[in-house]
């Protein structure tokens, strides 16, 4: 595809290079509340260092992300009984919005978050945690299902995530997103981020937000999130893909650069912006496809002994990236911030962080 119009793309690329490759405006702007919007599955993370026997018992891979089935229901209780657990406010999108807000610091409530919780104790904890993180969380609260949970089973520097969506699966466009006061918050944003996990919950909500972003030349970002999304929810994914300006993905066994180029070349509705594809590979270099070129960025080194928990590293990467993107910073600066925040998070349990970042 790139060979069809090399001159036009080359010319555009050189202009972008002159402008330091920022996909939005070139001058950093003063941020206002609700500039960054996220929508996803709010979950309470139950984290514990476990043994191989537990993984084997529930047929879990050491490094994976799956949705809980009936056979996993007892896992949550067993973890609490047998291991020392920690509770953290989680869910992929909410984590990323929290990290972005932490990187930004001031003003508070730059990040908005929508999702569904239950009217229960875990829901109250999530609301409190969101408030402490200075994000403007507006939850759809319902009685039918309890607040969702995610078991993070840690062995060495691997983590196996088992999500029991429960209430998170009950998000309703007409009951929450369509309400005038909520839609006004959506309209205030200029950058939108949704993790692929939400494709299993409310495709219509994602499409409404994605179309709004596209029609108003704002940035819509999506994360492929986990292998099962591409395998089992491909139709939903491909309905959203034409609206995606920035696509995030995680390591893969195939040729990462080739995958980045192919994803970048998929059809796109808003032709004013070319799609940017950012693929991470754990400790290996990050790959970014933009226009007709593929760039690589080495990650920050970390000693294996300093790694506490890789759960949340991907979410933190996206949060760091978004924190600069929403300030109209160049893309290389977005990647630097992404690498920094991921590097901070893997040294701690859960997707947690110190009081203030030390990012220059």
TrEMBL record:
Pathways involved: Purine metabolism; AMP biosynthesis via salvage pathway; AMP from adenosine: step 1/1
InterPro entries according to UniProt: Adenokinase, Carboh/pur_kinase_PfkB_CS, PfkB_dom, Ribokinase-like
Biased composition (Basic and acidic residues): 1-22
Cofactor note: Binds 3 Mg(2+) ions per subunit.
MF-aspect GO terms: adenosine kinase activity; ATP binding
SUPFAM superfamilies named among the record's database cross-references: Ribokinase-like
Cofactor: Mg(2+)
Enzyme Commission designation: 2.7.1.20
One GO cellular component, as annotated: nucleus
Gene3D superfamilies: 3.30.1110.10, 3.40.1190.20
Subunit structure: Monomer.
Known function: ATP dependent phosphorylation of adenosine and other related nucleoside analogs to monophosphate derivatives.
Descriptive protein name: Adenosine kinase
Record organism: Xyrichtys novacula
């Amino acid at each position: 595809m790139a060979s069809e119009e090399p001159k036009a793309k080359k010319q555009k690329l050189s202009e972008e290079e002159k402008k330091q490759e920022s996909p939005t405006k070139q001058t950093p702007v003063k941020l206002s509340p609700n500039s960054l919007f996220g929508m996803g599955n709010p979950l309470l993370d139950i984290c514990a260092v476990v043994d191989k026997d537990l993984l084997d018992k529930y047929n879990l891979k050491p490094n994976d992300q799956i949705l809980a089935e009936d056979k996993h229901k007892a896992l949550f209780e067993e973890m609490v009984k047998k291991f020392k657990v920690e509770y953290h406010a989680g869910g992929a999108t909410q984590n990323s919005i929290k990290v972005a807000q932490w990187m930004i610091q001031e003003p508070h409530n730059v990040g908005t978050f929508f999702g569904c919780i239950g009217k229960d104790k875990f829901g109250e904890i999530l609301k409190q945690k969101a408030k402490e993180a200075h994000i403007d969380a507006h939850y759809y609260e319902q009685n039918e299902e309890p607040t969702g949970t995610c078991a993070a089973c840690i062995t060495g520097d691997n983590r196996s995530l088992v999500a029991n969506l429960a209430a998170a699966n009950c998000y309703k466009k007409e009951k929450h997103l369509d309400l005038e006061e909520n839609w006004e918050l959506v309209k205030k944003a200029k950058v939108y981020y949704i993790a692929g996990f939400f494709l299993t919950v409310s495709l219509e909500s994602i499409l409404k937000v994605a179309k709004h972003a596209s029609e108003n030349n704002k940035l819509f970002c999506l994360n492929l999130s986990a292998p099962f999304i591409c395998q089992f929810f491909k139709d939903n994914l491909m309905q959203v893909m034409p609206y995606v300006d920035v696509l995030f993905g995680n390591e893969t066994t195939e040729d990462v650069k080739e995958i980045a180029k192919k994803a970048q070349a998929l059809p796109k509705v808003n032709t004013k912006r070319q799609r940017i594809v950012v693929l991470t590979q754990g400790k290996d270099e990050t790959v970014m496809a933009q226009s007709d070129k593929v760039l690589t960025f080495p990650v920050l080194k970390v000693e294996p002994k300093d790694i506490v928990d890789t759960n949340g590293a991907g979410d933190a990467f996206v949060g760091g990236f978004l924190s600069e993107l929403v300030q109209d910073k160049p893309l290389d600066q977005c990647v630097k911030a992404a690498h920094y925040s991921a590097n901070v998070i893997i040294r701690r349990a859960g997707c947690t962080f110190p009081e203030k970042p030390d990012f220059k």
